[in-house]
Amino acid sequence: MLSKKEKELIIEIWEKLTPVAADIGSDALLRMFASYPGTKTYFSHLDISARSRHLLFHGKKIVQAITEGAKDISQLTVTLAPLQTLHAYQLRIDPTNFKVQLFSHCMLVALACHMGDDFTAVAHAAMDKFLSAFAAVLAEKYR
Amino acid sequence: MVVWTESELSIINSIFSSLDYEDIGPKALCRCLIVYPWTQRYFGGFGNLYNAAAIKSNPNIAAHGIKILHGLDRAVKNMDGIKETYAELSTLHSEKLHVDPDNFTLLGNCLTIEIAAKLGDGFTAETQGTFQKFMAVVVNALGKQYH
To answer: Do the Cβ atoms of A105 and B109 come within 8 Å?
Structure first.
């Protein structure tokens, strides 16, 4: 799946993003809401307008969880256990790859906007693989 | 029929007029072949695709990338008739090239990423939404003649 080099590249990218976690996360969410309006239905109880407190807080939480997961990809199931339960039993966000790929895609776009040419095809490939694995593990407890 | 608002038409035209087709085309296609390596199956006759470096320096791939962007340009110039514009290309991709239409979305994603990397903050959420609507229409039109 992920080579040693790819894992290192992923850790490197997410650690660099830690100071702008809220910006990147909220940007990805905003992009998802604009491109796939159906995803807004899960946030009807929050204010998800651009730069809102809820959006920034939520975006930051997501990026922090992804960064944590990146630190040891082989342990994703352990690291994500509490989030698995949350998403499966409480949030019950439709986990079909389609939906999770929508967010992953928007996260990749947010990274591209932020990193410009540094978001090389090789980095993109590694990140796409990692986010797919992350999404799959997150959906494991649904049934 | 697809309905475009004035704003959406303006956004699409603005994006494409800011692009250098000779630069973005090759980049988008190379990215697709690297990020989704299975797409290389359609490029057997194009020469060395052994690794990322080889793909990026392959002149046949570069030329094809440019061709693709000019193909997209045809849709941009005919926003109210994209389905008709691509009928022939759709038949070509289905009957002659035998390309799985799911791959159109993959290439579309890579083009989105290249444009995002180029425009940075200028590629706002609203702009992305409009661009993705355009790509969805294109992808749908290209898949229309498959049977």
So the answer is: yes
- Estimate to the nearest angstrom the gap between the alpha carbon of B138 and the chain centroid: 8
Return the sign of the alpha-carbon dihedral for residues B116, B119, B121, B123: negative
Which residues on B lie below 8 Å from A116 (Cβ)? Answer: 117-118, 120
Task: Write down the pTM of the prediction.
Answer: 0.86
Residues of B in contact with A128 (CB under 8 A): 35
Question: Which amino acid is residue A22, in one-letter code?
Answer: A
Which residues does chain B have within 8 Å of residue A33's beta carbon, measured at their own beta carbons?
Answer: 125
pLDDT at A95: 75
The string of pLDDT tens digits covering residues B1-27 is 789 999 999 999 999 999 999 999 999
Q: Which domains does chain B show, CATH number per domain?
A: 6-146 (1.10.490.10)
**How many Å lie between the alpha carbon of A72 and the closest alpha carbon of chain B?**
22
How many Å apart are CA B93 and CA B146, to the nearest integer? 8
Alpha-carbon distance B42 to nearest alpha carbon in chain A (angstroms): 19
Q: Is the ipTM of this complex over 0.90?
A: no
The CA distance from B44 to B47, in Å, is 7
Cα gap A103→A33, rounded to integer Å = 9
Confidence of residue A119 (pLDDT cuts 50, 70, 90): very high
